[in-house]
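Example record for the data management plan.
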Amino acid sequence: MSDCPPEIRRFLETSGQPFEVVACDPDLAETAVFAERYGYAMEDSANTIVVKTKTGERKFAACLVLATTRLDVNKTVRKRLGARKVSFAAPEETREMTGMELGGVTVFGLPATLPLWIDSRVMGRERIILGGGNRSSKIITPPAILNTLPNVEVVDGLAVDIA
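Corresponding structural encoding:
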């Protein structure tokens, strides 16, 4: 049975919030595949996405959005980063920035210098399912735990409905 990395488990244990770490096959770590295979609702699943500027000063941010929505990169994220062009960070950049692989990136354990923007819809869920910091675990917890993280800001309109 797999667990999240020790530093993430320590954070969860000291957060004062309930949580559950569930194991998953690393080959099934992508959100839609995980939800279907293990019987979890996509509406409860939230993805941590690292974005970066493509022009001007090099800036990064982590964004947390529900899996049933799409990150508004070209409007909300671009304006918040103050850049003409932004994009998703490449897998190598995400790994370098967070120490985590795609399919397992979580908001827990991110560098304190990395802004964390959370779509307001995430906070309205009863529970959320997040990456476990690796591809072999997921974390289930109430969204209130997000308020204990550094550099966190809840943003209306960070994500848009998938058409």
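Summary line stored alongside the record: Helices lie at 6-14, 31-38, 73-81, 91-98, 120-123.
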